[in-house]
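JOB MANIFEST
job_type = single_chain_structure
chain_count = 1
residues = 299
[input]
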Amino acid sequence: MSAESKRPRQGQGRGGPGGKQRPQGASGRPGGGRGRPAGKDGKPGRDGKPAQSRGGRQGGAPRDRRQEPRERTEAQKVYDGPPIPDDVSAKDLDRFARQELQNIPPKLAEKVARHLVMAGSLLHEDPALAHQHALAARARAMRNGLVREATGETAYALGNWSEALAEFRAARRITGRAIYAPMMADCERALKRPQKALEYDTSEIRAQLDEGGNAELTIVVAGARRDMGQVEASLQLLEAENLMSKSRADWVARLRYAYADTLLAAGRRDEAVSWFHRVVAVDGDKLTDAEERLAELEG
């Protein structure tokens, strides 16, 4: 390096304008140009400008990072999830569901369980908020079958068919269970793929479903047949189920409603009216709009 290159430039090195010597700072090191801290050994930085000190912004007080919290990313917001009331406990989840969370560390499982409790309680009242709770649980336990099932159910309640189908597929891969088949088939139907919905109607899947599960699958498959213009085939499927069941389970009202609606589509109006009355007889929770349909038909 030449002697010329070692010489401080005007206003930036040891000498200020006119070559006068500047006073040293309290540390004993020479001051930089324009009152800013100089680099190591009093030399300017590579760009010719004095380097900043490690203490903070140049020419000001050190920055207190605590005063500037970073905004949470979208993924972090999903993980955080909505707030959970203090009185909601993991024990509010039923015993069998809690057993499904045993592959998760206890502390984490408690948080996941509380989100699942909220998802379940809000499913019909506020499915969007329920879905946020399910997503928060999934962010913590993505490889848990119960969590993926809950996420699928909340997505299904929202009408997010593709998302629901993906979650149910994940749950099935993890658990090996076929209980999700009726909702998976219904997602295919909602996505305008009735032929895909029919693929769930197998003896292997049927053998793994209880009476209610089989009835629910029949309702969906019969609907897919109707979508394909096969009304008579739809009626035959529904008639093979226990339409006169004495059970008060929800599937009975839905099965009878599907049958009444299909009778109407087949032009058998009087029979349809009779079956809509049978729906009302077992639909105390108003799961269907059978009463409104009767009001229209009976005028």
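[summary]
Confidence is low (pLDDT under 50) at residues 1-57.
The CA atoms of residues 245 and 252 lie 7 Å apart.
exit_status = 0
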